[in-house]
Amino acid sequence: MSRIVAFETTDIRFPTSLSLDGSDAMNPDPDYSAAYLRIVTDAADHVSGHAFVFTIGRGNDVQVAALDALAAHLVGRELEPLLDEMGAINRELIGDSQLRWLGPEKGVMHMAIGAVVNALWDIKAKRAGLPLWQLLSRMSPEELVALVDFRYLSNALTPEDALRILRDAEPGRAERESELLATGYPAYTTSPGWLGYSDEKLARLCREAIADGFGQIKLKVGADLDDDIRRLRVARAVCGEGFPIAIDANQRWEVSEAIEWVNALAEFDPAWIEEPTSPDDVLGHAEIARGIAPVRVATGEHAQNRVIFKQLLQAGAISVMQIDAARVGGVNENIANLLLAAKFGVPVCPHAGGVGLCEAVQHLSMFDFVAVTGTREGRMIEYVDHLHEHFVVPTEVRGGVYVAPTAPGTGMEMKAASRAEYEFGTAHAAA
To answer: In what residue span(s) does the Mandelate racemase/muconate lactonizing enzyme C-terminal domain sit (predicted)?
Structure first.
Protein backbone atom coordinates (compact mmCIF):
# COMPACT_ATOMS: atom_id res chain seq x y z
CA MET A 1 0.00 0.00 0.00
CA SER A 2 1.11 3.56 -0.71
CA ARG A 3 0.21 6.54 1.43
CA ILE A 4 -0.60 10.19 0.95
CA VAL A 5 2.41 12.01 2.36
CA ALA A 6 1.75 15.66 1.53
CA PHE A 7 -1.06 18.02 0.66
CA GLU A 8 0.44 21.03 -1.12
CA THR A 9 -1.57 24.16 -1.88
CA THR A 10 -0.56 27.23 -3.87
CA ASP A 11 -2.20 30.59 -4.53
CA ILE A 12 -1.80 31.20 -8.28
CA ARG A 13 -3.00 34.41 -9.94
CA PHE A 14 -2.78 35.58 -13.55
CA PRO A 15 -3.07 39.36 -14.18
CA THR A 16 -5.82 39.11 -16.81
CA SER A 17 -7.39 42.35 -15.57
CA LEU A 18 -4.63 44.23 -17.40
CA SER A 19 -6.04 43.17 -20.78
CA LEU A 20 -9.69 42.96 -19.60
CA ASP A 21 -9.86 39.30 -20.57
CA GLY A 22 -12.80 37.87 -18.66
CA SER A 23 -14.46 41.26 -18.04
CA ASP A 24 -18.24 41.39 -17.73
CA ALA A 25 -21.03 43.46 -16.19
CA MET A 26 -20.50 42.11 -12.66
CA ASN A 27 -16.76 41.41 -12.79
CA PRO A 28 -15.03 44.33 -14.50
CA ASP A 29 -11.44 43.49 -13.52
CA PRO A 30 -10.96 39.74 -12.98
CA ASP A 31 -7.54 38.22 -12.38
CA TYR A 32 -8.02 34.59 -13.38
CA SER A 33 -6.69 32.55 -10.48
CA ALA A 34 -6.39 29.04 -9.13
CA ALA A 35 -6.35 27.81 -5.55
CA TYR A 36 -4.15 24.92 -6.55
CA LEU A 37 -3.83 21.51 -4.91
CA ARG A 38 -1.23 18.78 -5.33
CA ILE A 39 -1.73 15.49 -3.49
CA VAL A 40 1.65 13.77 -3.07
CA THR A 41 2.09 10.06 -2.34
CA ASP A 42 4.99 7.73 -1.61
CA ALA A 43 3.86 5.37 -4.39
CA ALA A 44 6.53 3.78 -6.55
CA ASP A 45 4.91 5.23 -9.69
CA HIS A 46 5.43 8.78 -8.31
CA VAL A 47 1.99 9.81 -9.56
CA SER A 48 0.56 12.88 -7.84
CA GLY A 49 -2.95 14.28 -8.06
CA HIS A 50 -3.55 17.82 -9.30
CA ALA A 51 -6.67 19.98 -9.11
CA PHE A 52 -7.74 23.54 -8.42
CA VAL A 53 -10.59 25.85 -7.54
CA PHE A 54 -11.03 28.67 -10.05
CA THR A 55 -11.40 32.18 -8.62
CA ILE A 56 -10.89 35.68 -10.05
CA GLY A 57 -8.24 37.08 -7.70
CA ARG A 58 -8.87 38.47 -4.22
CA GLY A 59 -10.33 35.75 -2.08
CA ASN A 60 -8.05 33.12 -3.54
CA ASP A 61 -6.20 33.10 -0.22
CA VAL A 62 -9.49 32.22 1.51
CA GLN A 63 -10.02 29.38 -0.94
CA VAL A 64 -6.48 28.09 -0.30
CA ALA A 65 -7.20 28.13 3.44
CA ALA A 66 -10.31 26.02 2.81
CA LEU A 67 -8.18 23.49 0.96
CA ASP A 68 -5.68 23.41 3.83
CA ALA A 69 -8.51 22.66 6.26
CA LEU A 70 -9.05 19.31 4.50
CA ALA A 71 -5.46 18.08 4.74
CA ALA A 72 -6.04 16.15 7.96
CA HIS A 73 -8.62 13.97 6.22
CA LEU A 74 -6.04 12.60 3.81
CA VAL A 75 -2.41 12.97 4.87
CA GLY A 76 -1.09 9.67 6.20
CA ARG A 77 -3.90 7.55 4.80
CA GLU A 78 -3.47 4.60 2.47
CA LEU A 79 -4.17 5.67 -1.10
CA GLU A 80 -5.56 2.54 -2.74
CA PRO A 81 -8.66 2.16 -0.51
CA LEU A 82 -9.56 5.78 -1.29
CA LEU A 83 -9.25 5.21 -5.04
CA ASP A 84 -11.27 1.99 -4.81
CA GLU A 85 -14.17 3.73 -3.05
CA MET A 86 -14.44 7.18 -4.61
CA GLY A 87 -18.07 7.47 -3.59
CA ALA A 88 -17.17 6.82 0.04
CA ILE A 89 -14.39 9.44 0.27
CA ASN A 90 -16.65 11.97 -1.44
CA ARG A 91 -19.35 11.39 1.18
CA GLU A 92 -16.79 11.40 4.01
CA LEU A 93 -15.42 14.81 3.05
CA ILE A 94 -18.85 16.33 2.54
CA GLY A 95 -20.01 14.77 5.80
CA ASP A 96 -17.45 16.43 8.10
CA SER A 97 -20.13 18.06 10.23
CA GLN A 98 -18.00 20.89 11.60
CA LEU A 99 -16.87 21.95 8.11
CA ARG A 100 -20.27 21.23 6.57
CA TRP A 101 -21.76 23.75 8.97
CA LEU A 102 -20.09 26.49 6.92
CA GLY A 103 -22.30 25.59 3.94
CA PRO A 104 -23.85 23.18 4.01
CA GLU A 105 -22.54 21.84 0.71
CA LYS A 106 -21.88 25.22 -0.81
CA GLY A 107 -19.31 28.00 -0.88
CA VAL A 108 -15.56 27.87 -0.47
CA MET A 109 -15.61 24.71 1.65
CA HIS A 110 -17.65 22.75 -0.87
CA MET A 111 -15.46 23.92 -3.75
CA ALA A 112 -12.39 22.87 -1.76
CA ILE A 113 -13.88 19.40 -1.32
CA GLY A 114 -14.46 19.33 -5.06
CA ALA A 115 -10.78 20.01 -5.68
CA VAL A 116 -9.72 17.20 -3.33
CA VAL A 117 -12.09 14.77 -5.03
CA ASN A 118 -10.87 15.89 -8.47
CA ALA A 119 -7.22 15.44 -7.43
CA LEU A 120 -7.95 11.87 -6.37
CA TRP A 121 -9.65 11.25 -9.72
CA ASP A 122 -6.51 12.63 -11.37
CA ILE A 123 -4.43 9.95 -9.62
CA LYS A 124 -6.98 7.24 -10.42
CA ALA A 125 -7.09 8.14 -14.12
CA LYS A 126 -3.31 8.42 -14.42
CA ARG A 127 -2.89 5.01 -12.78
CA ALA A 128 -5.42 3.57 -15.22
CA GLY A 129 -3.52 5.14 -18.12
CA LEU A 130 -6.72 6.81 -19.31
CA PRO A 131 -8.12 10.32 -19.66
CA LEU A 132 -10.89 10.90 -17.13
CA TRP A 133 -13.68 10.86 -19.72
CA GLN A 134 -12.61 7.43 -20.91
CA LEU A 135 -12.15 6.04 -17.40
CA LEU A 136 -15.67 7.10 -16.42
CA SER A 137 -17.17 5.93 -19.72
CA ARG A 138 -15.82 2.42 -19.19
CA MET A 139 -17.22 2.04 -15.67
CA SER A 140 -20.35 -0.05 -15.25
CA PRO A 141 -23.68 1.64 -14.54
CA GLU A 142 -23.59 0.15 -11.06
CA GLU A 143 -20.11 1.56 -10.39
CA LEU A 144 -21.19 5.01 -11.60
CA VAL A 145 -24.35 5.04 -9.50
CA ALA A 146 -22.26 4.16 -6.44
CA LEU A 147 -20.33 7.42 -6.93
CA VAL A 148 -23.42 9.60 -6.55
CA ASP A 149 -24.85 11.00 -3.33
CA PHE A 150 -28.62 10.75 -3.88
CA ARG A 151 -29.50 12.51 -0.63
CA TYR A 152 -31.97 15.33 -1.41
CA LEU A 153 -32.44 14.08 -5.00
CA SER A 154 -34.82 11.17 -4.63
CA ASN A 155 -37.97 13.19 -5.38
CA ALA A 156 -36.48 13.91 -8.80
CA LEU A 157 -33.80 11.28 -9.46
CA THR A 158 -33.50 7.90 -7.75
CA PRO A 159 -30.67 5.35 -8.03
CA GLU A 160 -33.08 3.26 -10.12
CA ASP A 161 -33.63 6.20 -12.48
CA ALA A 162 -29.88 6.66 -12.81
CA LEU A 163 -29.30 2.97 -13.50
CA ARG A 164 -31.96 3.01 -16.21
CA ILE A 165 -30.39 6.06 -17.90
CA LEU A 166 -26.91 4.53 -17.82
CA ARG A 167 -28.05 1.06 -18.91
CA ASP A 168 -30.00 2.53 -21.82
CA ALA A 169 -26.78 4.19 -23.03
CA GLU A 170 -24.59 1.09 -22.60
CA PRO A 171 -25.11 -0.57 -25.99
CA GLY A 172 -23.45 2.15 -28.09
CA ARG A 173 -20.59 3.12 -25.79
CA ALA A 174 -17.73 1.68 -27.84
CA GLU A 175 -18.99 3.20 -31.09
CA ARG A 176 -19.48 6.61 -29.51
CA GLU A 177 -16.03 6.50 -27.95
CA SER A 178 -14.53 5.85 -31.38
CA GLU A 179 -16.68 8.57 -32.91
CA LEU A 180 -15.59 11.06 -30.25
CA LEU A 181 -11.92 10.29 -30.84
CA ALA A 182 -12.45 10.78 -34.57
CA THR A 183 -14.64 13.89 -34.62
CA GLY A 184 -14.38 15.64 -31.23
CA TYR A 185 -16.99 17.61 -29.29
CA PRO A 186 -18.61 20.89 -30.49
CA ALA A 187 -17.32 24.15 -28.98
CA TYR A 188 -18.53 27.72 -28.85
CA THR A 189 -16.36 30.71 -28.04
CA THR A 190 -16.74 33.58 -25.60
CA SER A 191 -13.42 35.12 -26.63
CA PRO A 192 -14.97 37.88 -28.83
CA GLY A 193 -17.48 39.01 -26.24
CA TRP A 194 -15.74 40.35 -23.14
CA LEU A 195 -17.38 43.58 -22.07
CA GLY A 196 -14.17 45.62 -21.95
CA TYR A 197 -13.37 45.09 -25.64
CA SER A 198 -13.82 47.84 -28.25
CA ASP A 199 -16.31 47.46 -31.10
CA GLU A 200 -13.40 47.07 -33.50
CA LYS A 201 -11.93 44.24 -31.46
CA LEU A 202 -15.36 42.65 -31.13
CA ALA A 203 -15.88 42.69 -34.90
CA ARG A 204 -12.40 41.32 -35.60
CA LEU A 205 -12.77 38.50 -33.08
CA CYS A 206 -16.21 37.59 -34.45
CA ARG A 207 -14.72 37.24 -37.93
CA GLU A 208 -11.89 35.14 -36.54
CA ALA A 209 -14.29 32.90 -34.62
CA ILE A 210 -16.29 32.14 -37.74
CA ALA A 211 -13.11 31.52 -39.73
CA ASP A 212 -11.93 29.15 -37.00
CA GLY A 213 -15.09 27.06 -37.39
CA PHE A 214 -17.00 27.93 -34.22
CA GLY A 215 -20.74 27.45 -34.55
CA GLN A 216 -21.70 29.96 -31.83
CA ILE A 217 -20.24 32.96 -30.03
CA LYS A 218 -21.24 34.58 -26.75
CA LEU A 219 -21.32 38.27 -25.77
CA LYS A 220 -21.37 39.76 -22.29
CA VAL A 221 -24.26 42.14 -21.65
CA GLY A 222 -25.97 43.92 -18.78
CA ALA A 223 -24.03 47.10 -18.00
CA ASP A 224 -25.82 49.49 -20.37
CA LEU A 225 -28.71 48.67 -22.70
CA ASP A 226 -27.68 51.11 -25.44
CA ASP A 227 -24.17 49.64 -25.41
CA ASP A 228 -25.59 46.13 -25.62
CA ILE A 229 -27.76 47.05 -28.58
CA ARG A 230 -24.79 48.62 -30.36
CA ARG A 231 -22.47 45.67 -29.68
CA LEU A 232 -25.05 43.08 -30.71
CA ARG A 233 -25.67 45.06 -33.89
CA VAL A 234 -21.94 44.89 -34.62
CA ALA A 235 -21.80 41.14 -33.92
CA ARG A 236 -24.95 40.38 -35.93
CA ALA A 237 -23.65 42.37 -38.90
CA VAL A 238 -20.42 40.36 -38.88
CA CYS A 239 -21.93 36.96 -38.15
CA GLY A 240 -25.01 37.25 -40.34
CA GLU A 241 -28.63 36.33 -39.74
CA GLY A 242 -29.22 32.96 -38.17
CA PHE A 243 -25.75 32.53 -36.69
CA PRO A 244 -26.15 31.66 -32.98
CA ILE A 245 -25.09 34.50 -30.65
CA ALA A 246 -25.65 33.82 -26.95
CA ILE A 247 -25.65 36.59 -24.36
CA ASP A 248 -24.53 36.51 -20.72
CA ALA A 249 -25.53 39.00 -18.00
CA ASN A 250 -23.48 37.43 -15.17
CA GLN A 251 -26.28 37.86 -12.58
CA ARG A 252 -26.63 41.60 -13.19
CA TRP A 253 -30.41 42.05 -13.23
CA GLU A 254 -33.52 41.99 -11.11
CA VAL A 255 -36.14 39.56 -12.44
CA SER A 256 -38.36 42.22 -14.01
CA GLU A 257 -35.32 44.04 -15.35
CA ALA A 258 -34.06 40.85 -16.99
CA ILE A 259 -37.36 40.31 -18.77
CA GLU A 260 -37.46 43.90 -20.02
CA TRP A 261 -33.79 43.92 -21.06
CA VAL A 262 -33.81 40.60 -22.92
CA ASN A 263 -37.01 41.50 -24.74
CA ALA A 264 -35.31 44.72 -25.83
CA LEU A 265 -32.52 42.59 -27.34
CA ALA A 266 -34.85 40.01 -28.87
CA GLU A 267 -34.50 41.58 -32.35
CA PHE A 268 -30.95 40.17 -32.43
CA ASP A 269 -32.26 36.62 -31.92
CA PRO A 270 -30.10 35.62 -28.92
CA ALA A 271 -29.39 31.88 -28.68
CA TRP A 272 -29.82 32.09 -24.91
CA ILE A 273 -29.54 34.48 -21.99
CA GLU A 274 -27.09 33.23 -19.40
CA GLU A 275 -27.19 34.03 -15.68
CA PRO A 276 -29.84 36.76 -15.94
CA THR A 277 -30.25 37.09 -12.16
CA SER A 278 -29.08 35.63 -8.85
CA PRO A 279 -27.91 32.02 -9.34
CA ASP A 280 -29.86 31.06 -6.19
CA ASP A 281 -33.20 32.44 -7.40
CA VAL A 282 -34.84 29.36 -8.87
CA LEU A 283 -38.32 30.87 -9.07
CA GLY A 284 -36.88 34.08 -10.52
CA HIS A 285 -35.29 32.10 -13.34
CA ALA A 286 -38.62 30.38 -13.96
CA GLU A 287 -40.40 33.75 -14.17
CA ILE A 288 -37.76 35.06 -16.56
CA ALA A 289 -38.08 31.94 -18.72
CA ARG A 290 -41.82 32.57 -19.06
CA GLY A 291 -41.32 36.27 -19.71
CA ILE A 292 -38.76 36.04 -22.51
CA ALA A 293 -39.85 32.89 -24.39
CA PRO A 294 -38.85 31.75 -26.97
CA VAL A 295 -35.39 33.00 -25.89
CA ARG A 296 -33.87 30.26 -23.76
CA VAL A 297 -32.48 30.66 -20.24
CA ALA A 298 -29.12 29.10 -19.37
CA THR A 299 -27.42 28.99 -15.98
CA GLY A 300 -25.37 26.85 -13.64
CA GLU A 301 -21.78 28.08 -13.42
CA HIS A 302 -22.56 29.42 -9.93
CA ALA A 303 -25.08 26.76 -8.95
CA GLN A 304 -23.94 25.73 -5.51
CA ASN A 305 -24.78 22.03 -5.63
CA ARG A 306 -26.95 19.31 -7.13
CA VAL A 307 -30.00 20.55 -5.19
CA ILE A 308 -30.03 23.88 -7.01
CA PHE A 309 -29.81 22.05 -10.34
CA LYS A 310 -32.64 19.75 -9.28
CA GLN A 311 -34.89 22.70 -8.48
CA LEU A 312 -34.01 24.62 -11.67
CA LEU A 313 -35.01 21.57 -13.67
CA GLN A 314 -38.15 20.84 -11.65
CA ALA A 315 -39.32 24.44 -12.03
CA GLY A 316 -38.77 24.51 -15.79
CA ALA A 317 -36.48 27.47 -15.14
CA ILE A 318 -33.73 26.59 -17.62
CA SER A 319 -33.55 25.26 -21.16
CA VAL A 320 -29.76 24.93 -21.06
CA MET A 321 -27.87 23.60 -18.03
CA GLN A 322 -24.31 24.77 -17.40
CA ILE A 323 -22.10 22.77 -15.08
CA ASP A 324 -18.71 23.93 -13.82
CA ALA A 325 -15.83 21.56 -13.08
CA ALA A 326 -14.62 23.58 -10.07
CA ARG A 327 -17.80 24.95 -8.47
CA VAL A 328 -19.55 21.91 -6.94
CA GLY A 329 -18.22 18.89 -5.03
CA GLY A 330 -16.05 17.49 -7.80
CA VAL A 331 -16.50 14.79 -10.43
CA ASN A 332 -18.98 12.83 -8.30
CA GLU A 333 -21.47 15.64 -7.89
CA ASN A 334 -21.17 16.59 -11.55
CA ILE A 335 -22.10 13.03 -12.48
CA ALA A 336 -25.26 13.60 -10.42
CA ASN A 337 -25.86 16.86 -12.30
CA LEU A 338 -25.46 15.17 -15.68
CA LEU A 339 -27.89 12.44 -14.66
CA LEU A 340 -30.42 15.05 -13.52
CA ALA A 341 -30.17 16.84 -16.86
CA ALA A 342 -30.62 13.55 -18.69
CA LYS A 343 -33.70 12.69 -16.60
CA PHE A 344 -35.30 16.05 -17.47
CA GLY A 345 -34.17 16.09 -21.11
CA VAL A 346 -32.22 19.34 -20.83
CA PRO A 347 -28.94 19.75 -22.76
CA VAL A 348 -25.74 20.49 -20.83
CA CYS A 349 -23.41 23.18 -22.22
CA PRO A 350 -20.68 23.59 -19.58
CA HIS A 351 -19.14 26.79 -18.34
CA ALA A 352 -15.44 27.01 -19.16
CA GLY A 353 -14.61 30.73 -19.00
CA GLY A 354 -11.63 30.63 -16.67
CA VAL A 355 -8.13 29.29 -16.21
CA GLY A 356 -8.08 25.52 -16.64
CA LEU A 357 -11.83 25.10 -16.90
CA CYS A 358 -11.71 24.10 -20.57
CA GLU A 359 -9.13 21.46 -19.73
CA ALA A 360 -11.28 20.07 -16.93
CA VAL A 361 -14.89 20.23 -18.03
CA GLN A 362 -14.38 18.71 -21.48
CA HIS A 363 -14.02 15.33 -19.78
CA LEU A 364 -17.49 15.61 -18.24
CA SER A 365 -19.21 16.47 -21.52
CA MET A 366 -17.40 13.67 -23.33
CA PHE A 367 -18.40 11.19 -20.62
CA ASP A 368 -21.99 12.43 -20.96
CA PHE A 369 -21.94 11.71 -24.71
CA VAL A 370 -20.41 8.26 -24.42
CA ALA A 371 -22.13 6.88 -21.31
CA VAL A 372 -25.11 9.04 -20.25
CA THR A 373 -27.12 10.70 -23.03
CA GLY A 374 -25.46 9.29 -26.13
CA THR A 375 -25.87 12.54 -28.03
CA ARG A 376 -24.06 15.78 -28.81
CA GLU A 377 -27.10 17.38 -30.43
CA GLY A 378 -27.77 20.85 -29.00
CA ARG A 379 -24.72 20.52 -26.77
CA MET A 380 -21.41 22.37 -26.86
CA ILE A 381 -18.59 23.31 -24.51
CA GLU A 382 -17.56 26.91 -23.92
CA TYR A 383 -14.07 27.86 -25.09
CA VAL A 384 -11.86 30.84 -24.27
CA ASP A 385 -8.49 31.19 -25.89
CA HIS A 386 -6.16 32.20 -23.07
CA LEU A 387 -3.90 30.55 -20.45
CA HIS A 388 -3.93 27.06 -21.97
CA GLU A 389 -0.17 27.18 -22.38
CA HIS A 390 0.24 26.81 -18.62
CA PHE A 391 -1.15 23.27 -18.55
CA VAL A 392 0.71 20.02 -19.01
CA VAL A 393 -2.01 18.81 -21.40
CA PRO A 394 -3.57 21.96 -22.88
CA THR A 395 -7.00 21.92 -24.47
CA GLU A 396 -6.90 21.46 -28.21
CA VAL A 397 -9.68 22.97 -30.31
CA ARG A 398 -9.58 22.54 -34.08
CA GLY A 399 -12.24 23.62 -36.56
CA GLY A 400 -14.55 24.67 -33.76
CA VAL A 401 -14.48 21.34 -31.92
CA TYR A 402 -12.68 20.03 -28.86
CA VAL A 403 -10.23 17.28 -29.78
CA ALA A 404 -10.80 14.44 -27.33
CA PRO A 405 -7.80 14.27 -24.97
CA THR A 406 -5.97 10.94 -24.76
CA ALA A 407 -3.40 11.74 -22.05
CA PRO A 408 -4.09 10.08 -18.68
CA GLY A 409 -5.64 12.24 -15.96
CA THR A 410 -8.21 14.97 -15.54
CA GLY A 411 -6.31 17.64 -17.51
CA MET A 412 -6.07 19.89 -14.45
CA GLU A 413 -2.31 19.63 -13.93
CA MET A 414 -0.54 22.95 -14.39
CA LYS A 415 3.12 23.14 -15.41
CA ALA A 416 5.49 23.46 -12.45
CA ALA A 417 7.18 26.48 -14.04
CA SER A 418 3.85 28.29 -14.42
CA ARG A 419 2.88 27.52 -10.84
CA ALA A 420 6.16 28.98 -9.64
CA GLU A 421 6.02 32.05 -11.88
CA TYR A 422 2.45 33.05 -10.99
CA GLU A 423 2.42 32.10 -7.32
CA PHE A 424 0.96 34.88 -5.18
CA GLY A 425 2.51 35.06 -1.70
CA THR A 426 3.78 31.90 -0.08
CA ALA A 427 2.91 28.31 -0.98
CA HIS A 428 1.34 26.21 1.73
CA ALA A 429 2.10 22.59 2.54
CA ALA A 430 0.71 20.20 5.09
CA ALA A 431 2.53 16.98 5.88
So the answer is: 199-295
Provide CB contacts within 8 A for 250, sequence distance 6+. 24, 25, 26, 27, 220, 222, 274, 275
Considering the entire predicted model, what is its pTM? 0.96
pLDDT at 80 over 80: yes
Amino acid at position 340, single letter: L
Which residues are paired to 247 by β-bridges?
A: 219, 273
CA separation for the pair 288, 318 (Å, rounded): 9
As assigned by CATH, the class of the 170-415 domain is alpha beta
pLDDT of 24 reads: 66
pLDDT digits (tens, 9 = 90+) for 163-206: 999 999 999 999 999 999 999 999 999 989 888 889 999 999 99
The whole-number pLDDT of residue 314 equals: 98
Catalytic-labelled residue, pool 126, 220, 390, 428: 220
Cα distance between residue 213 and residue 183, in whole Å: 13
Domain with CATH 3.30.390.10 in the chain: 4-129+418-430
Find how far residue 241's CA is from the centre of its chain: 30
Element (H or E) spanning 55, and its range? strand 49-55
pLDDT value at position 27? Answer: 67
**Cα gap 395→382, rounded to integer Å:** 12
> Which is the catalytic residue, given 73, 351, 390, 428?
351
The answer to whether the CB of 428 falls within 8 A of the CB of 38 is no
Angle at 231 between CA 227 and CA 197, to 5 degrees: 90
Q: Answer yes or no: 351 catalytic.
A: yes
Write down the architecture of domain 4-129+418-430 according to CATH: 2-Layer Sandwich (3.30)
Task: Tell me whether residue 428 is one of the annotated catalytic residues.
Answer: no
Predicted confidence (pLDDT) per residue in 221-279, tens digit: 999 999 999 999 999 999 999 999 999 999 999 999 999 999 999 999 999 999 999 99
CATH 3.20.20.120 location in the chain: 170-415
SS3 414: strand
What is the model's pLDDT at position 1? 87
With contact defined as beta carbons under 8 Å apart, do 53 and 111 qualify? yes
CB 362 within 8 A of CB 395: yes
